[in-house]
């Protein structure tokens, strides 16, 4: 009789992902075209104007500093739990569980926000092409179904889909950037705005830059599916941060050059007020209407790639917590044929349906309210996670007499990373209403949520019983 059981409770995820494939997954989660179209104009308009590109450089340097300790600890992490595993090994199981709940909140929040962004972007494109105006949530639920199917399958299928989308979206931005570099004088000339407007704070540009890197630590989440993880994960981490940082900073600089240093701040603020897309119009002016239309389609594929990456990340966090007995054990099951976290993926799909449904019923604006507020939560969450992870690296190497690089890599850089990231977190909280665009009361509530998740996870951390501990010897989770 044929075995129809598709679950493998004690099986590990499997795959043969190399450095390039993992970088594809991570950079796709960062959604380059989405960030260039959204975060960059915001950084220019509300941040330090013609110098907004420095925010992306600074963010890349901060994350590269963080990555030094993160990579040093990677060879000693045998669990694909990313922040959860690192924090647990360095600071203890309770804090580690708290970190896992912060990560779940962070990625769930930004995923819901991107579903709102996707629904708004599709409706905007359809109406521009002469189609009907439909509720944003119809498009959101449609793409949610596709993401759910791909997330259920083997990880290499997702990596191929993300790789194709990523190459196309980066390609069109590179073409636009090249056209700007070759023809630095705007054609036609930019709208006359008079005297240059005063710049905003550098801190705001840094805020929007950091949100553009969300998901970069996912390199460690895919260690079970990586080829030679001890080498693949560090190379993919440094490579992802470098590629994302250079791409964002250079694209931001090109957009500034396209409109002129004296005009760009006013132009960006006008687009922000009118609800237009500054980057798409820049592409139209420099490379033609046809390329603008192509870029508009690829913006949708960029958002789709982002959603698929976040789905995979959340599913794997839930799988690890299922293995630990902190969440229900069925989440630790893997598919016998696809070697995917199919149970966790299904739960993640159901969760997304419920949350998008709540957002739809609330009548909230999909871009300003849904995306803006969820981006605020995720920004606080990711910086809090990096602070805990850097502290965990320091404590891990102090408590375990293992050799891995020198004290610069295992102590001084992680300590410096903690201080730098605490400063960044203070900047984020001090400017939180700028990120969310909501009232002080609502913004405060949203900002507190990651800390509540940390406390809740800490409380639940004492009750977890590893699935591995319940199995006969010789079986592996």
From TrEMBL:
It is found in: Membrane. Residues 27-431 form the Amino acid permease/ SLC12A domain. Keywords: Membrane, Transmembrane, Transmembrane helix. It holds the Pfam family AA_permease. The chain crosses the membrane at residues 22-45, 51-74, 95-122, 134-152, 161-182, 202-224, 236-261, 294-314, 346-364, 370-397, 409-429, 435-461. It is a multi-pass membrane protein. InterPro entries: AA-permease/SLC12A_dom, APC_superfamily. Its main location: membrane. It comes from the Bacteria. This is APC family permease. It comes from Acetobacter sicerae. The lineage of its organism: Bacteria, Pseudomonadati, Pseudomonadota, Alphaproteobacteria, Acetobacterales.
């Amino acid at each position: 009789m044929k075995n129809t059981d598709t679950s493998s409770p004690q099986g590990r995820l499997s795959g043969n992902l190399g450095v390039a494939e993992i970088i594809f997954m991570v950079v796709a989660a960062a959604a380059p075209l989405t960030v260039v179209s959204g975060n960059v104009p915001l950084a220019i308009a509300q941040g330090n104007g013609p110098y907004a590109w420095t925010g992306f450089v600074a963010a890349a340097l901060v994350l590269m500093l963080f990555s030094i300790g993160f990579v040093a600890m990677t060879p000693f992490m045998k669990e694909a739990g990313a922040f959860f595993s690192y924090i647990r090994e360095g600071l203890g199981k309770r804090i580690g569980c708290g970190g896992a709940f912060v990560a779940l909140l962070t990625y769930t929040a930004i995923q819901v926000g991107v579903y709102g962004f996707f629904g708004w972007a599709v409706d905007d494109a359809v109406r521009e092409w002469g189609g009907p105006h439909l509720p944003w949530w119809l498009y959101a639920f449609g793409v949610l179904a596709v993401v759910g199917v791909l997330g259920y399958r083997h990880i290499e299928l997702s990596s191929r889909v993300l790789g194709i989308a990523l190459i196309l979206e980066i390609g069109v931005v590179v073409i636009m950037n090249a056209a700007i570099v070759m023809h630095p004088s705007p054609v036609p000339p930019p709208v006359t705005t008079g005297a240059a407007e005063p710049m905003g704070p550098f801190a705001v540009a840094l805020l929007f830059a950091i949100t553009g890197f969300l998901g970069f630590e996912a390199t460690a989440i895919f260690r079970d599916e990586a080829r030679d993880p001890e080498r693949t994960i560090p190379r993919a981490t440094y490579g992802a941060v470098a590629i994302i940082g250079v791409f964002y900073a250079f694209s931001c600089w090109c957009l500034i050059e396209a409109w002129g240093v004296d005009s760009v701040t006013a132009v960006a603020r006008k687009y922000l007020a009118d609800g237009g897309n500054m980057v798409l119009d820049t592409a139209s002016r420099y490379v033609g209407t046809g390329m603008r239309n192509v870029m508009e389609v690829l913006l949708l594929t960029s958002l789709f790639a982002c959603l698929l990456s976040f789905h995979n990340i959340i599913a794997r966090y839930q799988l690890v917590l299922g293995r630990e007995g902190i969440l229900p054990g069925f989440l630790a099951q893997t598919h016998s044929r696809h070697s995917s976290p199919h149970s966790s993926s299904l739960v993640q799909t159901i969760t997304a349906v419920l949350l998008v449904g709540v957002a739809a019923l609330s009548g909230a604006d999909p871009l300003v309210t849904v995306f803006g507020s969820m981006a605020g939560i995720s920004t606080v969450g990711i910086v809090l996670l990096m602070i805990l992870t850097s502290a965990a690296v320091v404590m891990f190497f102090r408590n375990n007499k293992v050799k891995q690089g020198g004290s610069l890599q295992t102590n001084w850089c992680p300590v410096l990373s903690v201080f730098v990231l605490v400063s960044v977190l203070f900047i984020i909280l001090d400017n939180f209403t700028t990120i969310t665009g909501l009232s002080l009361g609502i913004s405060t509530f949203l900002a507190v949520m990651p800390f509540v998740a940390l406390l809740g996870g800490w409380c639940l951390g004492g009750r977890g019983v590893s699935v591995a501990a319940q199995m006969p010897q010789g079986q592996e989770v």
